[in-house]
Specification:
This protein is an alpha/beta fold. The protein contains 14 helices and 11 strands.
Length: about 325
């Protein structure tokens, strides 16, 4: 498939319409909305960090309506079992009275899955979800069930409540394409939220894309060009986060215990292609990578004791590295 100008314009227009439909319901959070759409089209998953009540569930459901995709929600709790997510075999009687085992699919069988407060479930249950995310299949007994594309898991975690939680291991965090921070709305956004709440009618969200068009957009993203100097910038950025490297940035040596894995560079390339497509371009720019660096890398680096002692965050350390990185080639 070779992307034509007409195809490019169609995809760009469709994704703009999706954002417009979401904007009828979600006030602000433009970066979060864009990040979720990028992850969906790129074929990845997204981790959202934010306090409850900021519209994460509403965002996913609105996206499902705008794209005519099935959505489901899993509330993670300490007593949640893997079978509650992927499904289980149940004994059912047919019309003749004979009984047989039949697979009853769990809520993971949807195009858009909200894994709410994923860090409240035990590691065993978390692994069941993350394995399905990685393999895009669910195995029960000797039978393997394929999850239908597009398949996006939007996992959320509350940064404030740490008691009774099971933080995701670094290897599991690495499976998320992007980590997005959902911030409090501004005063103007809060006013609009209150005004919409008091309105006599709720906004109507229209379908502007369908499943096949989402998959077409994904195929189109693979046609987006990545120039050698853009690829080299992504590689140098990853190397700069690894403290033991000769290419490591001074901040990495001082504040980072473990830098990003190669998946960080892959995430930048995948997300960069979709971001450029959303802006009507068939080439990834350095600006795309700079904008995506924090969402793609903030969950892939581990800070050391000095960083925690000085109150440094992953975003602060990464920003220092990104801003000082020259735009030349290797």
């Amino acid at each position: 498939m070779v992307a034509s100008e007409q195809f490019l314009q169609t995809v760009t227009d469709q994704m703009k319409l999706v954002r417009d439909e979401i904007g009828k319901v979600i006030v602000g959070h433009d970066d979060v909305v864009e990040g979720v759409i990028i992850a969906l089209v790129a074929g990845g998953h997204v981790l959202l960090e934010g306090v409850p009540g900021l519209g994460k569930t509403t965002l996913l459901r609105t996206l499902g309506r705008a794209m005519h995709l099935d959505d489901s929600r899993i509330q993670f709790t300490p007593d949640l079992m893997p079978a509650d997510i992927v499904g289980s075999m149940v004994l059912e009687a047919d019309s003749l009275g004979s009984k047989e085992l039949r697979f009853q699919p769990g809520p993971i069988f949807a195009h858009l899955v909200l894994a709410d407060e994923i860090n409240r479930a035990t590691p065993r249950t978390q692994s069941a979800l993350l394995e399905a995310m990685q393999e895009r299949t669910v195995t029960t007994g000797t039978t393997t069930h394929q999850l239908e594309d597009p398949f996006l898991v939007m996992a959320t975690q509350n940064p404030l409540e740490m008691e009774g939680t099971y933080p995701l291991p670094e290897a599991q965090l690495d499976r998320f394409l992007l980590k997005l921070v959902v911030r409090y709305p501004t005063k103007q956004e809060m006013e609009e939220i209150v005004d919409r709440t008091m309105a006599p009618q709720s906004p109507v969200v229209h379908q502007v894309m369908d499943r096949e068009q989402v998959l077409d957009a994904r195929r189109g993203a693979h046609e987006v060009l990545i120039a050698p100097h853009v690829r080299d910038f992504a590689i140098r950025l990853i190397l700069a986060t690894q403290p033991e490297r000769e290419e490591a940035h001074a901040s990495a040596r001082k504040y980072i215990r473990y830098g990003s894995s190669p998946r960080g560079a892959q995430a930048l390339m995948q997300a960069g292609r979709v971001r450029s497509l959303m802006r009507g371009r068939l080439n990834v720019s350095l600006a795309d990578l700079r904008e995506l660096a924090l969402p793609a890398l903030r969950h892939r680096i581990i800070l050391n004791f000095d960083a925690h002692a000085e109150g440094k965050t992953a975003d602060q350390v990464l920003n220092g590295i990104i801003e000082s990185l020259p735009e030349g080639t290797l």
